[in-house]
Amino acid sequence: MQKQSIAILGAGNLGLAIYKGLETGGLLENNQAILTRRDTNAIKNVSHPATTITSDNRKAVEDADIIIFAVQPKQLKDVIDEVKPAIHQDKHTLISVITAVSTEEIEEMIGFDLPIIRAMPNTAIAVGQSMTCIACNKAGKSKLDAVQTIFNCVGKTMVIEENLMQAATVVCASGIAFWMRFIRATTQGGVQLGFDAEDAQKIAVQACLGAASLLNNSESHPEQEIDKVTTPQGCTIAGLNEMEHNGLSSALIKGLVTSYDRINKMKKS
Ligand SMILES: NC(=O)C1=CN([C@@H]2O[C@H](COP(=O)(O)OP(=O)(O)OC[C@H]3O[C@@H](n4cnc5c(N)ncnc54)[C@H](O)[C@@H]3O)[C@@H](O)[C@H]2O)C=CC1
Ligand SMILES: O=C(O)[C@@H]1CCC=N1
């Protein structure tokens, strides 16, 4: 890949996780990163020499080839108004990780047609384990491969239709929080059953990784793997059925749908 300068406008939780992923994924060996934030002192533990930290969004855009917008949805319009004069159709590829803002809306804010990619990673990008769902506008199609190459260095990617981006936000991005709570609850159960908290968490994390790996490395279905664990009249089926009587699957699905509906409200506000 030709040497590129990647600006992340809004180096907060996700922006910094993306940056960490670029660093650990080796992308800063040949490319430059520019991080912006209003209060640059809040950007900690960034020491890679190929990195510039600034509060000057306009200058960051002038110096960049790829611009990643990572501010909160309500902050986007102001940032675009600020950097618009420095955006060039033939030079820049825009990537937005912002929830609930379509490529069409971004195009309208900018006022002209240029490659716009919507990417929905999750914070596991910091450790190279994100799933990043990607969609684009018409002009963005020519840049899709290049953008996928970047996100493939920090996990896996899936190109989707933009109308699925809202669902991707919930399953992929919010998904990290949902799985964390599941691991936390398993840890709490482990403590009640006798492990200290540290050991309980280690066991819960490895069991979670193991379950994910069983599916990741095969064509298997979760229920097939469950069948292999649930000894007739054994302890697993007893516990699993108790969880289901208390609405485990139903609670998860309802939670996903509630998150999805919340995005509709964010769109209107
Ligand atoms: N946190 C997550 O796991 C995910 C977040 N997203 C989306 O990513 C975006 C960012 O989310 P977070 O990182 O969680 O929010 P955040 O609030 O941690 O980060 C946003 C950053 O932008 C900075 N900022 C605000 N105005 C600015 C300006 N004018 N110039 C430069 N920097 C400015 C803020 O100081 C803050 O550090 C949101 O739109 C969110 O919907 C998407 C997927 C996952
Ligand atoms: O909670 C949120 O709104 C953002 C989008 C997905 C993860 N964090």
From TrEMBL:
Which pathway is this protein assigned to? Amino-acid biosynthesis; L-proline biosynthesis; L-proline from L-glutamate 5-semialdehyde: step 1/1
Q: Which InterPro entries match?
A: 6-PGluconate_DH-like_C_sf (IPR008927), NAD(P)-bd_dom_sf (IPR036291), P5C_Rdtase_cat_N (IPR028939), P5CR_dimer (IPR029036), Pyrroline-COOH_reductase (IPR000304)
**Keyword Cytoplasm attached:** yes
Where is it found, in Gene Ontology cellular component terms? Answer: cytoplasm
Query: One MF term from GO for this chain?
Result: pyrroline-5-carboxylate reductase activity
Superkingdom, natural source: Bacteria
Q: Which Pfam families match?
A: F420_oxidored, P5CR_dimer
Where the record annotates domain Pyrroline-5-carboxylate reductase dimerisation, the positions are: 162-266
Q: Where in the cell is it found?
A: Cytoplasm
Among Gene3D superfamilies, the record links this protein to: NAD(P)-binding Rossmann-like Domain, ProC C-terminal domain-like
Keyword terms of this UniProt record: Amino-acid biosynthesis, Cytoplasm, NADP, Oxidoreductase, Proline biosynthesis
Q: Any idea which positions bind NADPH?
A: N57
**Which residues are recorded as binding NADP(+)?**
L9, G10, A11, G12, N13, L14, A70, V71, Q72, P73
- What chemistry does it catalyse, as a reaction equation? L-proline + NADP(+) = (S)-1-pyrroline-5-carboxylate + NADPH + 2 H(+); L-proline + NAD(+) = (S)-1-pyrroline-5-carboxylate + NADH + 2 H(+)
Pyrroline-5-carboxylate reductase catalytic N-terminal domain: residues covered: 6-97
Q: Could you tell me the EC number(s) of this protein?
A: 1.5.1.2
Q: Give the GO biological process terms.
A: L-proline biosynthetic process
By sequence similarity, the record places it as follows: Belongs to the pyrroline-5-carboxylate reductase family.
Function per UniProt: Catalyzes the reduction of 1-pyrroline-5-carboxylate (PCA) to L-proline.
Q: What is this protein called?
A: Pyrroline-5-carboxylate reductase
